[in-house]
Amino acid sequence: MGDRRAEAAPTTGSTVWAVLATSFGNLIEWYDVYAYSAFALYFAGSFFPKNDAAVQQLQAATLFAIAFLMRPFGSMIFGYLADRYGRRSSLTVSILAMCFGSLLIAVSPTYDSIGVWAAVILSLARIIQGLSQGGEYGTSVTYLSEISPPDRRGFYSGVWYVTLIGGQLAAVLLLFVLQKLFLTPDQLKSWGWRIPFAIGALASLYGFRMRAHLPESEKFVAAARTRRPFGELLKQNWRNMLVVIGITVGGTSAFYTYTTYMQKYLKLSVGLSDDQTTAVTLASLVFAIALQPLYGALSDRIGRKPLLVAFGVVGTLGTVPLLTAIKQTHSPLVALGLICAAWAIVSGYTSITAIVKAELFPTAIRALGVGLPYALTAAVFGGSTDAVALAFKDRGFEDGFFWYASALILVSLIVYLWLPDTRNGSALDRAA
Hints:
This protein is mostly helical. The protein contains 21 helices and no strands. It has helices at residues 2-7, 12-38, 40-47, 53-68, 71-85, 87-106, 111-114, 117-147, 153-182, 185-190, 195-212, 218-224, 230-257, 260-270, 274-302, 305-328, 332-350, 353-358, 366-382, 385-394, 399-418. The protein is globular, with a radius of gyration of 21 Å.
């Protein structure tokens, strides 16, 4: 029954539904991750006893980075599961793991109740979320690329990234609503920070239900009939895994700079109020979401490489001036305009990164090939963004982080200049 359903010719409606179901689950996964970052300003004191708010945020950011180190292990586990036993099974198990991690944070006792064990429980929850997130990226990117029409793969890649950014938007929007309508700052610090994690756990269960009814990818079903040894596939594709690392280094650093870190930057460095910080973050994310499918559709017409090179060039030259200008302004509107300008640059990477990586690998090793090198790079250069930036700030040399971020984009630019346009030489139709 499952194979007959997978082999049936997909209709436009079924493709759109599958994209939405996959993307909704992706949104929930990223919401759970971003809820940690968005609400860290309120819950850090419940787990870390230091009186200095900046030190508490550094500890919370360090834990955020450490959890990223679990992503490569998650990508190996879920990537192998997806490439050997199917995309659907991997997607459903990963979202259940995220549900458990979020629930654990929602019900965790605080430092005042159980001492250092509170931080241990928080660490365990973030490790579980890291494993889940590591498996989510490669598998969802793989499934999306395999069910998308060839002439619209860039567009659907942008749609998929809408949900990735939308996860943070949902977390920040919830924070804004709680701040403005329901809870006082003291209530948020006391118990209100638990609300987003409880919501995330419930939403994950709904995402599991949606994913359980997804049809299996036709390309996976076809490739499974001529399965080859996994070691042989790794030998043939390790160079493309290195390429994924090069593609990702600068983009993942830029992405986390303007998402998870930007909220702290606006509060701690620019000096905006809590309400102003949340409002600017929300508006900039809405702008970023609008750009993703537009840039993705553009790549279907002109190719992937021009967008990547544009991001690399302008990002390398513009990061230091942009972050410096944001730091020097005290106007929320000016800060918003500058962050939107940054998103106009970074979207050259974010909108198409999913499909570019998927187009490098044959079906038999696509989930692992995309997921593992991305997870390794995100762990080192993405998840560490907050911690590195705050460490520069703590040592009185905050501008050093601006140059660090620019240097990472330059590394990726070198790869983009060398990389052939994957739209014209896609491996998506190769089984192995």
